[in-house]
Specification:
The structure holds 2 protein chains of 2 kinds. Chain A contains 12 helices and no strands. By secondary structure, chain A is an all-alpha fold. Chain B is of the alpha/beta class. Chain B is about 40% helix and about 30% strand. The chains are: A mainly alpha, B alpha/beta.
């Protein structure tokens, strides 16, 4: 695990010392704040738990968007600048490179989500929400974020540069979001398969409501695992193709 | 120590390296010489474990690259043409990171300090890499290649983009590396190879065109030896003696003044003794006979030119 830690550490140094991390977090926080006021709190009086549900719904969108932008550079930038050669000539495994980078991005995502905590805490002060609901919501945000980062990282491992990685990442995550819509247009068993694969609709709503189900956790962890595995294979394949 | 045995690399249908075979002994500095696109970088990348060969075998210290790639990577330090640097990291911090991922387990700080000392980076060890000049960045590139104390250091165009002063410093650094490492340097700059390498491997259109020291390659290329002779006597007697020797294919009189003739002669083979006997037998005073050594530039152009012609044929 030592190699994974060093890769993660280097990613965090990059985010701390370059504008990208700050820009992504700032934009996400501004959008979260605006949506919290405009959509979650809204003009009418509502139950605090309903407001919190809407907050998580909005935050899931910004989390997925931020994940794609955090992940776009992870491998594509190294390839562009030639630093991937350093990793490729080191006695570390490709999965360690991929997993280390994934963890680095996840830590940044966790910092970003932690900085949104003031909004639910305001609700807690002025209304009535349970700590369990809060924890479940943030667990959901981190899980959906982890899936989006993994898909973004896969695109980053395949794309020749960061821009293409960002565009491809956005496209892939959008497809995974919109699968629920496609599910409605199809008949079983395809309907069930597509609905299950939808990254947001079926699996995030329980977290939004304060429920943590093992099946949903398994879905997000499995999706992340498959995407990271594919990214590892993409790195390995480049050694053969050149 | 390092053996390439019939190594080939194809990018799709295109062959970048074809049946390359050569070996490097411990402590040697070997120059990989070739024109742009000849297959130098692909060969180095395969040696460094960045690319895997399509066919053939590469081994370092008897360890096969294909079966134990990590062990081979741990024994090699690689400086690509563009140094793999993270501009937002400080020099010492970057080298510490590299030492860890290269598998250094004990005394990491000692390894980093030694690499910094060897590459004269002490003054900038706490500077951000992105703020350093091109020459310093190249040195940091060398430092990352030696920080884990590898047996073999592979340098791809190490002086590319450097000014003349920095090039001299870089060559001195490469010579210094020779004391502790086996070095493989690729370049198309002949002076650089001439000044730093013990042996040359010439690659042309993906194939190894020649291997040997500069003198050996010159011998191979010349085939027919070229000699400069200086004799005392008449021009007619000299020309008659040259004809009589039967060994000279081409004669060029450089100077004929005051009874001294200086001429460059091309011999069908190395028939210097026969020529000398003929000249002395004709009563000429043989003052000098010197074999002309080809410059590396001529050797290189001949080797790559011949190959190109034969490939075209």
């Amino acid at each position: 695990m030592s190699n994974v830690w060093w890769i993660t550490r280097r990613e965090l140094i990059h985010y701390l010392r370059s504008p990208l991390g700050y820009v992504i977090i700032t934009i996400a926080l501004v959008i979260d704040g605006l949506l919290f006021n405009a959509v979650a709190v809204g003009p009418s009086q509502r139950l605090s738990s309903v407001v919190l549900q809407d907050f998580f719904w909005c935050a899931s969108g910004t989390t997925m968007a931020a994940s794609i932008f955090i992940a776009m550079r992870l491998i594509a930038e190294e390839r562009q600048t030639g630093t991937l050669t350093l990793l490729a000539t080191s006695p570390i495994r490709d999965w360690q490179i991929v997993f280390g980078k994934f963890l680095g991005a996840l830590v940044l995502l966790a910092v970003m989500n932690a900085l949104t905590l003031y909004m639910p805490l305001l609700l807690m002060l002025n209304g009535k929400i349970s700590a369990g609901h809060l924890v479940a919501g943030y667990v959901g945000l981190m899980l959906i974020g982890s899936a989006a980062v993994s898909l973004g990282l896969l695109c980053s491992s395949l794309a020749p540069n960061q821009l293409i990685a960002a565009i491809a990442g956005t496209g892939v995550v959008l497809v995974f979001i919109l699968l629920w819509l496609l599910a409605r247009l199809t008949t079983p068993p395809l309907e069930d398969v597509l609905a299950y694969l939808s990254i947001h609709d079926k699996h995030f709503r329980p977290f939004q409501k304060g429920l943590v189900s093992v099946a949903d956790v398994v879905f997000y962890v499995s999706l992340s695992y498959v995407a990271l595995l594919a990214a590892t294979r993409a790195l390995e394949a480049r050694r053969w193709r050149g | 120590m390092i053996v390439l045995d019939k190594v080939s690399k194809y990018y799709g249908e295109r062959a970048a390296v074809i049946d390359a075979s050569f070996s490097i002994e411990a402590g040697e500095v070997v120059g990989l010489l070739g024109l742009n696109g000849a297959g130098k970088t692909t060969t180095l990348k395969m040696l460094a474990g960045v690319l895997l060969p399509t066919a053939g075998r590469i081994s370092v210290d008897g360890i096969d690259l294909m079966t134990n790639v990590d062990a081979v990577r741990a024994r090699i330090g690689f400086l690509p043409e563009v140094p793999p640097l993270y501009p937002e990291m400080r020099v010492a911090e970057y080298l510490t990171f590299v030492a860890h991922i290269k598998g250094v387990k004990v005394d990491v700080a000692g390894h980093v300090d030694a690499a910094i000392a060897d590459t004269d980076l002490a003054d900038v060890r706490n500077e951000f890499i992105g703020t350093l000049s091109n020459g310093f960045q190249r040195r940091v590139g060398i430092a990352q290649a030696i920080v884990h104390r590898p047996a073999l250091i592979v340098l791809d165009e190490p002086t590319a983009g450097l000014d003349p002063k920095q090039m001299v410093q870089m060559r001195a650094l490469i010579r210094k590396l020779k004391q502790r490492h086996t070095v493989l340097v690729s370049s198309h700059i002949l002076n650089e190879i001439e000044e730093t390498c013990d042996r040359l491997v010439v690659i042309n259109r993906g194939r190894i065109a020649a291997i040997g020291t500069e003198a050996e390659l010159a011998g191979n290329v010349q085939g027919a030896a070229k000699v400069v002779v200086e004799v005392r006597g008449t021009r007619a007697a000299f020309e008659a003696a040259v004809r009589q020797s039967g060994a000279v294919t081409k004669t060029a009189i450089e100077r004929d003044e005051g009874g001294i003739i200086v001429a460059t002669l091309e011999l069908a083979n190395d028939a210097r003794e026969a020529l000398a006997q003929s000249l002395i037998g004709a009563g000429l005073g043989l003052r000098r006979m010197e074999r002309v050594q080809l410059e590396l530039e001529s050797i290189f152009l001949t080797l790559t030119g011949n190959r190109a012609q034969s490939a075209a044929a």
